[in-house]
Amino acid sequence: MPDKPLEISLNMTAKELYDANPEYKAFQEGDAQPMGVTFQGYDFSTSNMGKAIFHYSDDSFKIDQVVTILAMDKVTSEQRGLNKITVDFFFDKTDNGISDEDAYKKMMAFFKELQDKGWTYAHSNSAPRLTAKDSFTFATTDEGSELYLDYSYPLTFKEWMQLNDLQLWRLRYGTEIYMDIRINRQTDPSTGNRHYLISLDVYDELEKIQTNLDSEDRIRWQDTYPETYPEIVSWRLENETSAINMGLRIQQNQPDYTLPLILKETGIDTSKSVSIDPYKITYEEFIKRSEADEDMTPYYENQTKANKPEITSQARGRCLAGQP
Question: Which of 31, 89, 200, 243 fits 248 for a cystine, CB–CB 3.0-4.6 Å?
């Protein structure tokens, strides 16, 4: 295994990725897929794992025990940037596994490093507006969802062990780069050894926007996002209704953030996201009454009738990427 770590950055082309890492040529792997797409990246065995440095803006972070680096690229365009890269790595260095306590310490150390570098929780417009502490309760209760756990919440070891074995955290660095961190906690049935596979999905703002859209709408997202955007308020209301039923307090003054590309291309400022007051109406009541063409303006927070978004029956029955 070369001593030099793999050099990775978002939106480099597949050619640039391979040219920057000639020492790793033997580990390159391209897997052609239908629709003119191929997976580009590297593959390592667990007995000979790699290491990488992920560069972004003016900073970087290092990853050890890497088993795969994977990105999608258009076969027909060598100059198309890789706008989403997945890195899979283990906390343990050997097949002997790692203790839950050591895995917990490694994850908390990684989170602290990211916090010190300026990474923040990437709540979405559909996320319930909760404190970091309450986001843990929401993530570990059956009526909630692990999709919205604030990574800045300082988990105790006991809380760490309460997490789903496939737990997700969503982070962002400004509005230019996003990262989903997922743990896959496994137990080898033959040995009882514990293993923690960590997956990092690092992607740009365009990929972030497109995850809220159906696959057939992603290419023309500028046209379809304004149609989908009004539905997001009902997704948030659904989550906040569940949170209130758990006894959690909704932080109605919790701000959203601007996605510059959406603002530029559609004129929608996501930092001024419309919300429905969950203390005035539940999700079920809202959907039922709005589909009956009732004027729901009084249930919108800080909205007048003139700029009330139009909610349609599409708000029920759709299950988009990354949504409950």
Answer: 243
